[in-house]
Amino acid sequence: MWQAFKKADPAVKAAIIGGIFLLIGAIITGTFQLIKPQTGLTSPTSSPTPVVTSTPGSAQTTAAASPTSTVVIEKRTIPCAQSSCQVMIVLDSVGIDYSNGNMLWTFALGSSPGCTATLGLYLEDPSGTQYRVGGQAAEQFTLAPGGSIHLVAIFALLPTHGVAYQLHIGGGAFPGFECITGPSYGGEIYQTESFTF
Question: Which of 6, 55, 123, 154 could join 135 via S-S bond, C-beta 3.0 to 4.6 A?
Fold first, then answer.
């Protein structure tokens, strides 16, 4: 094959080399998706564009869908359930990863007192089953004074279409947001929020 390439017309060589560079560029930028596993994927909705209904306050949030994942842009501030909380928590997005069978919730934490902290959170379905968090949100993290951080919480479940899930940050055996070094604030508890997928 190499011998045939060496003997080819210069215009053909240029076309082949150009095609190779285009292919490499497409792979690097992620636009080349010809090889993509498609077996065993399920979606909780039959609609090509899932809709997440969230309560309270927010009407509907539409998500862009693909056969392997869905990202819902949520941008919902999670209110403090106490008289005041030192840290503001905002849910940025919820990703549903069908191929790995989990959900990825991205939170932004801000207005920090400055400490090493933990975030006790879980999801609960209507039957009372609690789904513990994994990922960054399950580990200790450090917040600079007045700073912010993004954390990803991974829940090992795919949501059932039309079922309301409750997000709990604090309560029961979970301390909510808690400084474990630096200023100690105990567990800050946040309002329970409902999400229907």
Answer: 154
Q: What is the pTM of this model?
A: 0.64
pLDDT band at residue 11 under the 50/70/90 scheme: low
If asked whether residues 21 and 115 sit together in one domain, one would say: no
pLDDT of residue 114: 83
**12-58: pLDDT as tens digits:** 555 465 445 444 444 444 433 332 232 232 333 333 333 343 444 33
Structure tokens given for 111: 């207005």
CATH number, domain of 116, equals: 2.60.40
Residue range of the domain that includes 139: 51-196
For 152, the token pair is 């990803």
CB 142 within 8 A of CB 136: no
First to last CA, the chain: 54
31 in the same domain as 63: no
Q: Please write the tens of the pLDDT for every residue from 124-143.
A: 999 999 999 999 989 999 88
> Which residues, 6+ apart, have CB-to-CB distance to 143 below 8 Å?
87, 109, 112, 113, 114, 115, 116, 117, 149
130 CB contacts (<8 Å, ≥6 apart)? 122, 123, 124
| Lookup: tokens for 19 | 């095609």
In a domain, 40, yes or no: no
Give the CA distances from residue 67 to residues 12, 47, 71, 136, 148, in Å, rounded to whole numbers and listed in that order: 38, 11, 12, 26, 33
